[in-house]
Amino acid sequence: MKDFFQFIASLFEDVLFLPFYALADLELENWFLANGVNWLFVLIAAMAFGYWMVQLKKFNQNDTEDRSVKAHSFLGKDAQY
User: Fold this and answer.
1) Are 73 and 79 in contact, with CB atoms under 8 Å apart?
2) Is 65 helix (H, G, I), strand (E, B) or coil?
3) Alpha helices of 1-81 — where are they, by DSSP H?
4) 78 φ, ψ to 5°?
5) pLDDT tens figures, 12-64
6) Distance, CA of 35 to CA of 32 (rounded, Å)
7) What is the dihedral of CA 59, 64, 69, 73, to 10 degrees?
8) Which of 26, 37, 60, 65 sits in a 20 to 30 Å window from 79, CA-based?
């Protein structure tokens, strides 16, 4: 059983963590390149936020949203359907 757990430890340390070790070494040379995945996520989040704002503006201009105080059933018993 000890060999099995040592195999799992070896698998993670010698194989599966290699990309993380490579990023740690790359970070010493070029910070922007090492954080490229983070920059990609920031770009995707900014694009999603922009799309969301455009959709909100579109719905506000069309006046299709029910803005009454009790527009949703969880706000009170006198909700309008």
Assistant:
1) yes
2) coil
3) 2-11, 18-29, 31-34, 36-62
4) -90, 35
5) 999 999 988 998 898 889 988 889 888 999 999 999 999 999 998 988 888 77
6) 5
7) -100
8) 60
Q: What is the pTM of this model?
A: 0.54
Dihedrals φ, ψ of 33, to 5°? -70, -40
Closest to 37 in 3D by CA, of 17, 25, 23? 23
Contact 23, 34 (CB under 8 A): yes
Distances in Å between the alpha carbon of 59 and those of 1, 66, 70? 61, 11, 19
Residues 6+ apart with CB under 8 A from 65: 59
SS3 73: helix
In angstroms, rounded to a whole number, what is the distance separating the alpha carbons of residues 22 and 37?
A: 14
